[in-house]
Prior knowledge:
The complex is a heterodimer. In chain A, strand 7 (112-116) and strand 8 (125-129) form a beta hairpin. Chain A has helices at 4-15, 25-43, 92-98, 153-157, 162-178, 183-204, and strands at 2-3, 47-53, 60-62, 67-76, 88-89, 106-107, 112-116, 125-129, 131-132, 139-146, 159-160. Chain A is 36% helix and 21% strand. Chain A is of the alpha+beta class. By secondary structure, chain B is α+β, with helices and mostly antiparallel strands. Chain B has 2 domains: 3-44 and 185-243, no CATH class; 46-182, no CATH class. Chain B is 27% helix and 18% strand. Chain B has 5 helices and 11 strands; from the N terminus they run ααβββββαββββββαα. In chain B, the strands form 3 sheets. In chain B, strands 1-11-3-4 form a 4-stranded antiparallel β-sheet, with no helix packed on it. Chain B has a 4-stranded mixed β-sheet with strand order 2-7-6-5, with no helix packed on it. In chain B, strands 9-10 form a two-stranded antiparallel sheet. Chain B is elongated, with a radius of gyration of 24 Å. The two termini of chain B are 44 Å apart. The chains are: A alpha+beta, B alpha+beta. Chains A and B meet through helix 2, strand 2, strand 3, strand 4 and strand 5 of A and helix 1, strand 1, strand 4, strand 8 and strand 11 of B. Strand 2 of chain A pairs antiparallel with strand 8 (135-136) of chain B, so a sheet runs across the interface.
Amino acid sequence: MGAIVSEVTAKIRNLVPESSGRWSDAALAALIHQAEMMVGEQCDSDWTTTEISLVAGALYYPLPVSMIGVGSVVLGVNGTDFIDDVLFPCTIADLDAADVDWRDTGGTYPTHYCLMGAPGSESSRILLWPKMETVTAEKVQITHLFSYTAVNLSLVARSMPAEVQDSVYVPLVMGMMYATIDQQRANLYFRSAFEAMPSVRSRFVSPYSGGTPGYTDPTTSRVGGQLR
Amino acid sequence: MTFMDLSNAFKQITGDTNEVFWTAAMKLAWANEAIGAAARLTEAIEKRATIISVADQGEYTLPSDVQFVQRVAFDGEALEFTNKSNLSRSDRNWTDDPGTPFQFYLDMMNGKVGLYYVPQVATTLSTFIGEYGVLLEPETGSALGEYGSIVDPLDATDFYSSEYGDVASGVSGNDIEVFYVSSATAIAAAETPDLPPWSHGLILFWMLARAYEAETQLQNVGASQLFMHLAEKIIGRLAVRSKGKLPKVWQMQAGYSRRDDDPDVDDRFQYASET
């Protein structure tokens, strides 16, 4: 594992030794950020949690802009330990079909959630149903796919295995660098990166239902032990 | 990411740091073109608007950013979709017939939503329909102010009349909720587009595609096509994320009728794998 901004920059400098005149470190960081957002979305590589404090009578809550997609929504009755119910995903059409008056139906705890808008857009919302009649300390914890939204210290600290840097990040950045100079070469880089993404993604997706996603070394068998 | 952030990345990639070939106005126009196209193609922006009904008024103005309407509810209950033609065939006096609305129609030429029957009684709104809550910073536990604030749901004198928190006081009437796919709002230089930040690369690549398409000394049609291909690829991913938000294993239990009087709502939901 290594920091992507510093290590990918170094790999690019090795591949294109005379690049520093045209491509400053800031320019490469901008390209690496674009690559990181593509990798994060397509490879399901980084998950985090966000907690929402529930409010009596409320149905709709905003979502963080760093969110790419929702993995699970879990209720924590005491607001600290998220070991209570897992909320069921559904659509507003499902709610309409189940209970004509669902909006005004209150309950002890929410049991279902719906999403409005693509997660991550500022207007996106999560609908938690039914609304709670009274609230003490209840929260829900959303486990979601996370994206690095800016070139900042978090991105600088972002690390990835060397083989992922080599197979995806470096060709993506090289493709963007060569797009205006040599389109055929740029196309080859892009094709290489996009073809590697499903394989990389398979390493980030947990094979165990409900397991914590994390990177699995490609030389290690999923059922334990080294591959021969 | 604001337009200025995208513009800076554009400058880094093109090397046009002094905006010799492409002005800020050109880039902003291309950025807004990309935002509009992405919102239209992906349906990524969904909103909920609230309109307060008025006695004897059947038609109400839709929000100006409606792309298409998904659902209309009166006093919390979903209305059936119909159109003026059907209404005029079934009820000669449909524009004035009083009662509790159970159907709605759309007049998109004039930006209106109409209710049938025409609501008569304006009752005091007693149920809170706004949205509340704060998100907590995962590491510090402090509230993130930009995500809204908690208001007292029992205080019926103030409520959020729209999802962005405009406060209206002393309201009486039933509420008409309009759930819709929204078009994108054009941004200014310091503003952030209402698309997920992970997809903002599509705006950058669209700007680059248009820049190298433009007839300048740096015109490069091949580069333009390559950048447009990248932009379209991200638009495709955003469409997937927008239209496939929920886990694929989920579906409503088959055969349920909304006329069922069984009050145990939870029994009507279950995972597909259990059916």
